Here is the input.
Amino acid sequence: MSRPVAPMLAATIRGLVGDDLPVGIRAWDGSQVGPMYGPVVVLRNRRALRRLLWRPDELGLARAYVTGDLDVDGDLADGLRRVWAFARDRGRVHVSTRDRVEAIGTAARLGVFGPPPRPPASEARIHGRLHSRARDQAVIAHHYDLSNDFYALLLDDAMSYSCGYYGPDAGTADEISLDEAQRAKFELVCTKLGLQPGMRLLDVGCGWGSLSIHAARHHGVHVTGITLSREQLDFARKRAADQGVSELVDFRLLDYRDLQDGPYDAAASLEMGEHVGDAQYPTFVSTVHRALRPGASFLVQQMSRAAGDSPGGGPFIEAYIAPDMHMRPLGETIGLLEAGGFEVRSVQALREHYVRTGEEWLARLEARWNAVVALVGEEVARVWRLYLVGGGLAFEEGRMGVDQILVRTRLSPDRSNA
Here is the structure.
């Protein structure tokens, strides 16, 4: 009789890192090992291990999970939290040649060796020069053109796909709903920009038009919203008509680099700057600066990561969710805004608010799981479950941040900036 699979794997893990994994393992032959009182990693077939053999990293795990070759029985967030902590604690473990040879022997006995499994169909296949107009359009289409119906299952009624605002103390505002948090975020932005009836607002990366429509309805401003997504554009125009603000809102399918008109009295960009790219960020800043009148305010809501810490968000995010994204430390973004001619007026951290926002999106995904699967298929649904769980942990643990940065164009030397 062949030896049980799970104990063999556990023995190999101990040989490589000197300790057991912090989660249980259940293999395709029914054998199991490790703590069974918490999350249990379920290996449904040999292909799960083959994926890890060819990509022994985050991408290999993600490929195994989204295809269903690997699953988690129990709390996925708790499982990821334990595995990440385990990996951080043992990131510098030295693996001897003997240990490697024994691990290879175990793989051979389990029948894991073979050609690399084909990447999942949901993995992005983006080509062309980095941040060319055609490539940026393809990246946006990959992420945002799943269908408006899909995002309607996850987001609030206004279709806001950015961090909400749960009040001064995000940790204690349990009674605030996602819809209320997003409306509060819109009001926070409009208040910081000092919007008044008749002003012109530029909404760069307007998404489904949620901020633009709110600013028009509640502050009487004329808004130009630009997006690269045809799905978003069509939705935003219809929503503006339905809410009676079509005469105040002009939605355009436009690359920010092609923006020519102005001057605007204010501008906002909610979590679009991460998609601009590192080399192109000065162009992004100068384009907005050129479109604004002297003394106009610009609010940037943008995610950040520590220096040298996977600016694209890591292999999974880069392959499945947002190819070509670039996040940098907050201070570097502020420096780029200042170098582009802006004066910094305020910075507000919203990291805890993104933990709450992500929890709400994940809860909606789980509650509407069957509808999501019927719409986009189980593989894409599993991609989004992994994305929302992993992203929420990244904000919870401080590996990612998000901030509102308010800046202002400078007045001419003979006028006060007060």
In short: The chain has two domains: 5-109, 133-409. Confidence is low (pLDDT under 50) at residues 414-418. The radius of gyration is 24 Å.
